[in-house]
Design the sequence.
């Protein structure tokens, strides 16, 4: 399990950020809030090799490993957002490292959203490629994302925000 979490935790680089007990890298108090998610590659989708390796270790398909990875990142994003909102800095409207808390939250959620959309684009390439216009593809990808994110939030018991 530890090896799987190393693969799934870092995304694209083998577990640089997060752990089983602290998936969002939040231990250590307010000064570390949000640092793990700001690391380069934190929201990188699993490579094919990483997905196959994680799937093999967990005895699931590579697609199921990607789903676990996406859910792990979504949950750690929301844990991080909750910690940021509960922090003293948010209470007084302070900034963290010169960046307003709201911008940090939006950046984290955007990173997670883009990672999931990249995976959906890869998974539904044929369906999306059959659509005639770029706007139609973008709309359909948005619909696929909404359904997927809703399903993940339901499983993880995350309230939509």
Sequence:
């Amino acid at each position: 399990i530890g090896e799987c979490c190393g693969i799934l935790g870092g995304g694209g680089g083998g577990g640089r950020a997060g752990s089983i007990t602290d998936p969002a890298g939040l231990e250590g108090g307010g000064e570390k809030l949000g640092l793990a998610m700001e690391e380069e590659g934190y929201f990188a989708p699993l490579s094919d090799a990483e997905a196959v390796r994680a799937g093999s270790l967990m005895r699931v398909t590579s697609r199921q490993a990607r789903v676990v990875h996406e859910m792990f990142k979504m949950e750690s994003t929301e844990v991080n957002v909750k910690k940021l909102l509960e922090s003293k800095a948010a209470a007084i409207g302070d900034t963290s490292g010169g960046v307003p808390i709201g911008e940090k939250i939006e950046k984290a959620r955007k990173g997670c959203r883009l990672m999931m959309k990249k995976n959906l684009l890869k998974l539904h390439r044929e369906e999306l490629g059959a659509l005639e216009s770029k706007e139609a593809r973008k709309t359909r990808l948005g619909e696929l994302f909404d359904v997927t994110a809703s399903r993940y939030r339901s499983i993880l018991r995350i309230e939509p925000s």
User: Anything to note?
Assistant: Residues 2-156 form one domain. The chain is about 65% helix and 0% strand. Confidence is low (pLDDT under 50) at residues 11-35. The longest helix spans residues 62-86.
